[in-house]
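Please, structure for the following, as tokens.
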Amino acid sequence: MGTVITVVLIIAMIGAGIALVHRLNAQHGARIAAFRYSEPLPGIGRSRGRNRRPAGPGPAGPGPAGPPPADDREQGVGGRG
């Protein structure tokens, strides 16, 4: 009787191991499918900000149009001066 219980427990543990490996394999497959291999990793490769020209007119264009608009935070609480 003890041998039968041992064999049943071993078969049950093998089945649980197979189910666990199958589930982990499915999760890994989903992770691989979701990963975009064509996009570079952040921080690797060419920097986008170094040699970029500013947007807008070139050096011959008009200068600033005046002072920047007032910020509400400089006027005190609630925007009242």
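The radius of gyration is 33 Å. The chain is about 40% helix and 0% strand.
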